């Protein structure tokens, strides 16, 4: 979502008459699009701001946008006095105005208002990938997971109209895009604000029916709002990818309650069961946090068992990080950094073994890939399957980018698959 925000901001700036330069050294204006989901990401912003100012910052205008901007607000001006613009994502539709203020000589400009009912979608978005286009369908989050800073940095949920999403998908199809990835903090709580009132499953199905679109993905889902009609839509429409990212966060119902995730392990497994009964095999991926305050060895064991039970295709795993304003900040029984590290290493090893076992089973299978890139040095192509797996293969052909090709899997590692073009 953050990367797509950058595409929107770049597009807006280009439309205002600015141009993009190859290196930061050549720029007059420097934008830092920031993430504050974990503390490490936040610290990185300040280190880079400091470092770049010293190295090549003379005479340049610095802007800090995104979640760190929203969270820290005007405090950024104190920590990094060379910054002139601080704006959160809910204010991006005002960027042209804010830039005009800077051009007029205003030294400090802010966009920190969160009570907006607008989404920031712009016809000027400058997309980096020519085949797969991201479309934001809902911004903000109304959940209150106790560890999470997002509701404070991205504000309340706002959905776009179904008609505007379909229009954008059709426009992208006209430009040659064949894959659409629908984005939102919680896409499952999407609700069309127009009288049509589409829910997420309906929107998903409709995007999958836009002429020219061959693949539709979506991220992220929240188990509480993930309903059976989403699986029914995937069953009914082959253009909807066989992949669901359904973050569980923990395998322990006790920890899930502390996280205020609003579901139990059993309810989560019920959703996994729906996917197992789908007509096509659906890849399932997840996010997991280790070391949430009070997580015992038994709780952690339950997460490890859940990995084996679900057999995820891949996971993103994180050490719990204390975030400002969040309810979990007040919880006692914080887990030490060493212990968090121990747990995440075990978790990742366990997942690696699961992936190795599953990938070996793919040997000999034929997968359809959307070819997305080429490594010039090795002459290898890389593409993605509907189940969101990257596969590399060698071919002397030179015109495969953006095409769909069948590839047989010939080699499998825990995190990689190699194949041959058929
Ligand atoms: N600490 C660690 N991980 C977090 N995430 C969100 N907030 C935190 C936090 N405070 C993870 C969750 C979420 C993913 C995007 O980031 O797993 O699903
Ligand atoms: Fe954060 Fe929970 Fe909302 Fe996801 S659903 S953005 S984890 S508050």
Please characterize this protein's 3D structure.
The chain is of the alpha/beta class and 422 residues long. It has three domains: 2-111, Rossmann fold; 132-360, Alpha-Beta Horseshoe (pyruvate-formate lyase- activating enzyme); 366-421, Beta Barrel (OB fold (Dihydrolipoamide Acetyltransferase, E2P)), CATH 2.40.50. Helices cover 34% and strands 21% of the residues. The chain has 13 helices and 17 strands. The mean pLDDT is 95.
CATH classification class of the largest domain = Alpha Beta
Number of helices: 13
CATH architecture of the largest domain: Alpha-Beta Horseshoe
Number of strands: 17
CATH third-tier fold name of the largest domain: pyruvate-formate lyase- activating enzyme
State the strand order across the main sheet: 13-14-15-17-16
What value does the Rg take, in angstroms?
22 Å
Features:
single chain; 422 residues; alpha/beta; Rossmann fold; pyruvate-formate lyase- activating enzyme; OB fold (Dihydrolipoamide Acetyltransferase, E2P); 5-stranded mixed beta barrel; 4-stranded parallel β-sheet; 21% strand; globular; binds 5'-deoxyadenosine; binds iron/sulfur cluster
Write the layout of secondary structure elements.
Layout: H1 2-15, E1 29-34, H2 39-56, E2 61-66, H3 67-72, H4 75-79, E3 83-87, H5 95-103, E4 109-111, E5 132-136, E6 138-139, H6 150-154, E7 158-159, H7 162-174, E8 179-183, H8 200-207, E9 215-219, H9 228-236, E10 243-245, H10 253-258, H11 265-276, E11 283-290, H12 297-310, E12 314-319, H13 337-360, E13 366-375, E14 380-384, E15 390-394, E16 404-412, E17 417-421
Helix pairs in contact: 8-9, 12-13
5'-deoxyadenosine (5AD) is lined by residues 37-38, 147-148, 247, 249, 287, 289, 318, 320-321, 323.
């Amino acid at each position: 979502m953050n990367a797509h925000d950058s595409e929107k901001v770049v597009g807006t700036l280009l439309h205002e008459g600015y141009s993009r330069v190859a290196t930061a050294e050549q720029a007059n204006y420097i934008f830092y699009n920031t993430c504050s989901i974990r503390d490490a990401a936040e610290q990185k912003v300040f280190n880079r701001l400091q470092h770049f100012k010293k190295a090549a910052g003379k005479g340049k205008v610095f802007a800090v946008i995104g979640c760190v901007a929203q969270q820290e607000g005007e405090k950024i001006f104190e920590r990094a006095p060379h910054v002139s613009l601080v704006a959160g994502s809910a204010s991006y539709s005002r960027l042209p105005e804010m830039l005009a203020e800077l051009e007029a000589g205003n030294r400090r400009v802010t966009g920190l208002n969160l009570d907006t009912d607008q989404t920031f979608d712009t016809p000027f978005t400058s997309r980096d990938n020519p085949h797969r286009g991201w479309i934001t369908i809902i911004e903000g989050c109304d959940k209150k997971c106790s560890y999470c800073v997002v509701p404070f940095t991205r504000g309340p949920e706002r959905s776009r109209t179904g008609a505007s999403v379909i229009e954008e998908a059709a426009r992208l199809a006209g430009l040659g895009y064949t894959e659409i990835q629908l984005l939102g903090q919680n896409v499952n709580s999407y609700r069309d604000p127009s009288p049509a009132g589409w829910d997420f499953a309906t929107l998903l199905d409709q995007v999958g029916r836009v002429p020219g679109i061959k693949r539709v993905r979506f991220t992220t889902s929240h188990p509480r709002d993930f309903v059976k009609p989403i699986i029914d839509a995937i069953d009914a429409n082959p253009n909807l990818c066989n992949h669901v990212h359904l973050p569980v966060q923990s395998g322990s119902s006790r920890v899930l309650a502390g996280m205020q995730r609003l579901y139990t392990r059993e309810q989560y497994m019920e959703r996994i069961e729906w996917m197992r009964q789908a007509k096509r095999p659906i890849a399932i991926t997840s996010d997991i946090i280790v070391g949430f305050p009070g997580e015992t060895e038994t709780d952690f064991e339950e997460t490890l068992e859940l990995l084996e039970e679900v057999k995820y295709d891949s996971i993103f795993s994180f050490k719990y990080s204390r975030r400002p304003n969040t309810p979990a900040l007040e919880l006692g029984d914080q887990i030490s950094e060493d212990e968090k590290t121990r747990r995440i290493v075990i978790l990742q090893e366990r997942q690696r073994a699961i992936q190795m076992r599953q990938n070996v089973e793919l040997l000999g299978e034929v997968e359809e890939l959307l070819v997305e890139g080429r490594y010039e040095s090795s002459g290898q192509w890389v593409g993605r399957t509907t189940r969101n797996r990257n596969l590399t293969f060698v071919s002397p052909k030179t015109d495969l980018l953006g095409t769909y090709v069948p590839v047989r899997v010939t080699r499998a590692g825990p995190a990689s698959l190699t194949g041959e073009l058929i």
